[in-house]
Amino acid sequence: MGLTARSAVEISAARLQRGIAARWREWGELAVQAPLFFAAMVSVFTTIGIVAVLLVEALPFFQEVSLKDFLLDTQWTPLFAQKHFGIMPLVAGTFLTSAVALALAMPVGMLSAVYLSEYASPRVRAVLKPALELLAGVPTVVYGYFALLTVTPLLQRIIPDLETFNALSAGLTMGVMIIPLISSLSEDALYAVPSSLREAAYALGATRLEVAVRVVIPAALSGIAASFILAASRAVGETMIVAIAAGQRPTLTLDPRRAIETMTAYIVQVSLGDTPHGTLEFHTIFAVGLVLFLITLVLNLIAIRIIERYREVYR
C-alpha cells in the first residue's frame, strides 16, 4: 500500500509539472503572438488612417463641387481665375505616362526574366540580377532630371515637334525605373517552377525555347501577372519623374509628345505651400489623392484575382 500511495503521489506530481510546463508554453506562445499581431495590425490601421484622412479632407471639396463635374468635366483649372474641377485631364495624363512606361518595361522586364531564369549560367545570373536591381535604388528625382536633360534632347532629334516637357520621355524613363520590379518578380516566379516540369518537357524532345514559352511561363503566369499589375501601380503612383519631365499642363490629350500633368504631379504642385490651407483649392489634393488611392486599390485587387485564378487553373 505504501508503494502504491507513493506511486500515486509521484504520478500526480508529474502531471502537475506537465500542466505547469504546458501553461508556460501557452504563455510563451501568447507573448510571441502579441507583438506579431501588433506588427501585422500596424499596416491595417495605417491604411485605415490614410483612408479616413482622405475622406474627411475631401468631404469639403465634394460639398462645393458635384461628383458629376468632378468626373466628367474635361478641364482642370482649380488654381486659375476661371475654375474647373474636372479630373479627366489628370487621369488621362497619369494613364498616358503609365502606358508608355509599361509598353517599355513589360517586354524588356519579361525577356530579362526569361534569360536569367532559363538561359543564363549561375555565374552570369549572380552578376546580372544584382546589377539590374541597382536601377531600383536610383532616386526618382535623378530619373526625373535624366529624362528632362538627356532623354528629351535625344528624342527631339528623332521627333522635332516634341515639346520640352512631354509624356513620352517621362514615360520611357519611368519604364526603365520599373524594369527591375517586373524582371525580379517574374524571374523569381519562373525560377520557382519545379525542375521536374522542365525535365519532362526536355524528355519529350522540346527545345529550351519551347520549354520556356510553353511550360515555364504558363506555370509561373500568376507571379508574372502580379508583377505586371504591381509595376502598373508603381507607375501610376510615381511622382518626381512626371513632376520634373512631363510638365504641369493639365490637358486632356493622348498625344505623348505634349506636356501633360498627372495626379501625383498636381499634388506636388499644390503641396509646395503657395495654396492657403483650408481653401477649396487646398482640398483638391485630397480629392485627387482619393481617386489615386482607388485606382491603385483596383489594380491590386485585379492582381489578387489574377493570382487566385491561375492558382486554381494550375493547381
Descriptive keywords:
single chain; 315 residues; mainly alpha; MetI-like fold
Commentary on this structure:
With 315 residues, this protein is an all-alpha fold. The protein folds into two domains: 2-64; 70-313, MetI-like (MetI-like fold, Orthogonal Bundle), CATH 1.10.3720.10. The chain has twelve helices and no strands. The chain has helices spanning 2-64, 67-72, 88-119, 122-133, 140-158, 167-191, 195-203, 208-219, 221-236, 240-245, 263-271, 280-313. Helix 1 packs across helix 12 (280-313), helix 5 packs across helix 6 and helix 11 runs antiparallel to helix 12. The longest helix is centred in the first third of the chain and has 63 residues, at 2-64. The protein is flat, with a radius of gyration of 28 Å.
What is this entry, summarized?
With 315 residues, the protein is mostly helical. Helix content is 77%, strand content 0%.
Query: What is the 3D form?
Result: flat
CATH homology-level superfamily of the largest domain: MetI-like
- What's the N-to-C terminus distance? 64 Å
**Strand segment tally:** 0
Average pLDDT works out at 84
CATH architecture of the largest domain: Orthogonal Bundle
Proportion of residues in helical segments:
over 70%
Q: What is the CATH class name of the largest domain?
A: Mainly Alpha
Number of helices: 12
SSE order, as H and E? Answer: HHHHHHHHHHHH
User: Structural class, from helix and strand content?
Assistant: mainly alpha
Largest sheet report: none
